[in-house]
Design brief:
By secondary structure, this protein is mainly alpha-helical. Helix content is 36%, strand content 6%. The protein has one helix and three strands. It has one helix spanning 14-65, and strands spanning 108-110, 121-124, 138-139. A three-stranded antiparallel sheet has the order 1-2-3, with helices on one face. The longest helix has 52 residues, at 14-65. The N and C termini lie far apart (82 Å).
Length: 146
């Protein structure tokens, strides 16, 4: 008569699997903790870069036409020729679309500006997406950081 001998199988036990899942969870948690503030910081850096590009386009618009777009014409004047006064004489397209900030809201443009009365204000409404709350707005009136 042949006896069955049970050899130890090379399989993982439930305890070992739970330990691996717990270690993976801890590593993910640590990664999120260390990168959490970096996303907000990256969005602010992108806003500053976008503002520089928009300022350059507005400078080109002003150089070609002698004036900046009105608040009503807005940044759309960089994409499509305005039909309202003052109408630009030497208009050409300076952007493909009206620029949007990292929170997917169009940048706010005001001419004359509240912060820059002799020029314009251009800013992102920030994470709260509300241009009326100045606390988190990022605009051309702030000195660039970094």
């Amino acid at each position: 008569m042949k006896r069955h001998t049970y050899s130890r199988r090379s399989a993982f036990t439930l305890l070992e699997m739970m330990l691996v899942v717990m270690i993976i969870g801890l590593l993910i948690g640590m990664g999120l903790h260390y990168t959490a503030g970096k996303l907000d910081q990256a969005k602010q850096v992108r806003v500053r870069a976008d503002l520089q590009q928009i300022k350059t386009n507005l400078m080109m618009y002003q150089a070609a036409n002698g004036f900046y777009p009105t608040t009503e014409q807005g940044l759309k004047a960089l994409v499509q020729k305005p039909e309202t006064d003052p109408k630009p004489r030497n208009w050409h397209q300076l952007d493909d679309q009206v620029p949007r900030d990292p929170w997917d809201i169009e940048y706010v443009y005001r001419y004359p500006g509240k912060h820059n009365p002799k020029e314009y204000d251009i800013f992102s409404a920030g994470p709260d997406r509300n241009p009326e709350t100045d606390e988190d707005n990022i605009g051309n009136w702030e000195p660039a950081t970094n």
